[in-house]
Design goal:
The chain is α/β, with parallel strands linked by helices. Helices cover 30% and strands 24% of the residues.
Length: 237
């Protein structure tokens, strides 16, 4: 059993389906709600892994959210200690930024909704994403993107965003998409972040499209999520 530190930034962007995957394997999660004022720990003593969730803020909003800097510090510590580190969307961007990459507006605009991602050539010969088809659908909700930090291996891309995922070694996985979402989460996001859906751009789906066959889409996504997380889960101590 591994005790996992989870850093959460928004009330509706929790672990989702990943919570059930972790619980089924007997792992324990300790969620720190940074949006509610719970601080980032100064150290990782007692934790065997780190998960960073998504959020509507930018990694650059450190004036308003100073804990974004504390997160980057704990990410560097975790990666340096070769603890398993997993980031989703903002979490993936924080990993990139903490390790020397850049986070910038996505050149092709926001990417929101159900869009396919494609494995990179590097992913084809990697243990990461094994068992997944060359192309599959993920749920997305982002306007920024990351560049690859030193030593990172690109794993996924999409038509609207070149960098969709990267790995560093066997322990660190950064994702731009959201394999963790459930129908309840998707419904909540389309309400609480409805203004995002009014943006123009080919990569922005409307609420009706996002909700179409939602239960079935999330069932298929769970299968993909299980395969995405599997190599990372195998590193838990």
């Amino acid at each position: 059993m591994t005790k996992i530190l989870v850093l959460q930034h928004h009330p509706e962007e929790g672990l989702g389906s990943l919570q059930h995957i972790l619980a089924a394997q007997g792992h324990q999660t300790e969620v720190h709600r940074l949006d509610l004022g719970v601080p980032v720990p100064d150290h990782l003593l007692g934790y065997g892994a780190l998960i960073i969730m998504g959020g509507p803020m930018s990694v650059h909003d450190t004036g308003r959210y100073p804990w974004l800097l504390s997160e980057q510090q704990i990410i560097r510590q975790a990666v340096g200690e070769e603890l398993p580190v997993l980031g989703h969307c903002l979490g993936g961007q924080l990993i990139a930024r903490a390790l020397g990459g850049q986070v910038t507006p996505n050149p092709d605009g926001p990417e929101i909704g159900w869009w396919p991602v494609t494995k990179t050539l590097e992913a084809m010969s990697s243990d990461w994403l094994a068992g997944l088809p060359d192309s599959f659908t993920l749920f997305h909700w982002h306007g920024e993107t990351f560049s690859l930090p030193s030593g990172a291996v690109p794993l996924l891309s999409s038509d609207f965003c070149t960098q969709q995922a990267f790995a560093i070694g066997k322990h660190c996985l950064a994702l731009q998409g959201h394999p963790e979402v459930t129908p309840t989460m998707v419904q909540a996001w389309t309400k609480s972040m409805a203004d995002d859906l009014q943006q123009t751009g080919a990569g922005v789906q409307r609420s009706r499209t996002i909700h179409d066959h939602l239960e079935h889409r999330c069932e298929e996504l769970l299968g993909s999520a299980t395969a995405i997380y599997r190599p990372w889960l195998e590193q838990l101590r």
